[in-house]
Design goal:
The protein has 279 residues and is mainly beta. It has helices spanning 10-24, 239-242, and strands spanning 26-33, 43-47, 50-52, 55-57, 61-64, 67-70, 75-85, 96-106, 116-123, 156-161, 177-182, 189-192, 204-211, 216-223, 229-236, 246-254, 261-274. It holds the Pfam family Lectin_legB.
């Protein structure tokens, strides 16, 4: 007569724990906002940023009777409060991530307008702090003192810059561009941004992807469906060297003497941090 052994085989236990170990040795994180309700958590609105009509407006718009006035020298940020695990100090592995957002930049009519918005990644401790005197071409990211001094300030940003300043690749007012910034307002790589050639109030879509294997940060900005206007730019960046292990992500925008509105209509983010596979 056969006797049933209630104890599971040792090999089965071993395989089971290997499976659990493998499952916990990868870390993923994601969120998606198709619309922004008032007081959307966990997004913090800093400075002049506010939510209105299901969107995030990063710079101030004042209602004056029947007219709308875009405020000069306005600065605002929208920051996702939950820290993102960008890389692992024990393994040295860096996360892959993809973020997409739709946006509207409206000049209000004038040919000359400014100054732009940016998606940024920065240390947890500084993400909510808007630097002093960071309106205008500083995009709410930098103060004049640290804008071109990369040593004390940590930030990686994708800027949609609607006004060409003296430090930009083409220092002309209509030279709008998409740029990648590393600890400095002087972009390491840029491409043209067709904000002045698309219809007013056009909905743009930006996609930012980081591949940890190639260390490439790639950016695509498009308007319209297939066949519409699309521009792209990329840069090799070792984020482990540039940024701390834990970061926050968000948007920043600014106006100066020239103005425009900066609206974020939707936003999604996904990251995946690989860990060594179990042997």
């Amino acid at each position: 007569m056969a006797v049933c052994n209630p104890k599971p085989p040792l090999m089965a236990i071993f395989v089971f724990f290997l499976f659990l170990l493998h499952k916990t040795n990868s870390e993923s994180f994601s969120f998606k906002f198709d619309i922004f309700e008032p007081d959307t958590f966990p997004i913090a609105l800093v400075g002049d940023a506010f939510s209105y009509g299901g969107a995030l407006l990063l710079t101030r718009i004042d209602q004056g009777g029947d007219s709308v006035v875009i405020r000069k020298n306005s600065v605002g940020r929208a920051v996702y409060l939950t820290p993102i695990h960008l890389w692992d100090r024990f393994t040295g592995n860096v996360a892959d991530f993809t973020t997409e957002f739709t946006f509207v930049v409206d000049s209000g009519g004038p040919l000359l307008h400014g100054d732009g918005l940016a998606f940024f990644i920065s240390p947890v401790q500084t993400a909510l702090n808007i630097p002093l005197n960071s309106s205008g071409g500083y995009l709410g990211l930098f103060s004049p003192e640290n804008a071109f001094n990369p040593s004390p300030y940590q930030v990686v940003a994708v800027e949609l810059d609607s006004f060409g300043n003296a430090w930009d690749p083409i220092p002309e007012p209509l030279a709008a561009h998409v740029g990648i910034d590393i600890n400095s307002l002087r972009s390491v790589n840029t491409t043209g941004w067709p904000i002045n050639s698309v219809p007013r109030r056009s909905l743009g879509k930006a996609r930012v992807v980081y591949d940890s294997k190639t260390k490439e940060l790639s950016v695509t900005v498009s308007y319209g469906s297939k066949g519409g206007t699309t521009v792209s730019v990329s840069q090799i960046i070792d984020l482990k060297i540039v940024l701390p292990e834990w970061v926050r992500i968000g948007f920043s925008a600014a106006t100066g003497d020239l103005v425009e509105s900066h609206g974020i209509a939707s936003w999604s983010f996904t990251s995946f941090l690989r860990q060594p596979e179990s042997k």
